[in-house]
Design a protein that fits this description.
By secondary structure, the protein is mostly helical. It has 22 helices and no strands. It has helices spanning 2-37, 41-55, 58-70, 76-89, 92-101, 106-123, 126-154, 169-186, 189-202, 207-220, 222-229, 234-256, 258-273, 278-297, 301-311, 331-359, 364-385, 392-415, 419-426, 428-444, 451-481, 487-528. The protein is elongated, with a radius of gyration of 30 Å.
Length: 529
Amino acid sequence: MLTIFGGIGLFLLGMTMLTNGLKEIAGDALKRWLNTFTKGRISAVISGAVMTMLVQSSTATTLLTIGFVSAGLLTFMQSIGVIIGANIGSTSTGWIISLIGFKISLQTMALPIIGVGVFMSLIAPNDVKKFGGVLAGFGLLFLGIDMLQQGMGAAQDLISFDAIPADSFISLFLLIVIGIVMTVIMQASSAAMAATLAALFAGAIDFEQAAYLVIGQNIGTTATALFAAIGASVSAKRTAMTHLLFNIITAVIVTFIFPYFLQATKWFTILIAGEFEQTLGLAIFHTLFSLVGAIIFIPLMQPFANLLMKIVPERENALTRNLDDSLVAMPSVAIDVSFKTLREIIVELTKALQQLITMKKVTIEYEKKMLEVEEAIAITRTFLDGILVTSKRERLKLISILHTLDHLTRLIKVLREQQKVEAIYLQEKMMQEWQRILTTIEDKISQDEKLLDISLILEQTSQEMAQERRNKRNQYFERSVANETQLDLAVSKVEALLWIDRLVYHYWRATARMAEFQSINEDATHHKL
């Protein structure tokens, strides 16, 4: 039993190193690739499958997908396609193990790979070190499978599945539950699949028992996403629910048609291998399981998305719904999500200010919007504090975002001052002109290519406002000295001018920093092209 536990531990360690290394190598490339190849339902499914094959973890794909939805790179419906594809891609581990793992001496192959990988991680240049981690993880993964083979061979007499043959409803239900528990405990469906394949190869279980364990493991693999979604954003919860419902519904269908499913599995195995190889057959069973689910769900994506949105409705601050704490582990995605959030905050702030100018008083609706914006700014600041950047481009983008957040914070302070209503009455013409500019901002700010235009408009407005403030301030005091107006009124008008000046300035600087962020993004894209 100790050998089995050690084998599982080595497999999980190897899988973690392999996944982390591949994510680090391919993270930005996957992001660009997904943005290009997930326009349709089928392409989204294929993208999810390929991405999972590359990073060898459906959990990693699920987490990345949450980030892409939050960053606006994927719609929620597209994310359903990616999750379906991730289930298909996760079956690649079984194929690798069944085709390689039981055909050669894994220990002989694994040890040199681990050695080369570790030395690369220690002494290679920084750009090459991450490849060493991938190699070492790959070697540990196969060393773990080798130990599992040895452990399962020795444990045949200790672990008896004879008492639960797959010939009754209670037995098959128990096997499915065991499969769920295996995956929940190991926190990786690939590790549970490896253990099942090793047990099947060693003769500890028969093929039907292994197949029911795989059905349970497909349900159990959703546990990681469900745990991660506790206290997370609505996007994370919906994605986790997508994974759960997809696997449960598919498991129920496959269980009901199990005899026919088994026949199809044997037919495909013989077609590929010329005879029925049980370990290869189990990998094919796993793949067919996910393909059946995909065939059922792809035509029903829109109704499925509508159902999930009803099951998990929006209940949090809508402006920060995409700020999932799990995204801070992926700086490039987290930064893009923050940018989108700040843009939504500016839109909401603009609507609130337009309402204030139109109503010429603080309304309940205005106060509600301001409280929501203040809360969103506080949440965003906490989220940004957890991001650790490593590349120069990410550092520059994060600095632009922090400057934007700083100006929005100052803008809120300006809008909380008492002079705001006085300014609307005392500088009515100027505020009407400002409202016209705010309408332009609201219309254009959602378009990335218009951010620079908005920034230039506000820069010119801010400069004109500053000049107007200097001219009128002197005029007001001259009129007061000439007894043409009361000093208190002159002072109030000057304070209103100062208030508008600061309001326009912080609007300009916030949008200028957002345009700067967009420019860094575009430069990086052109450079890579």
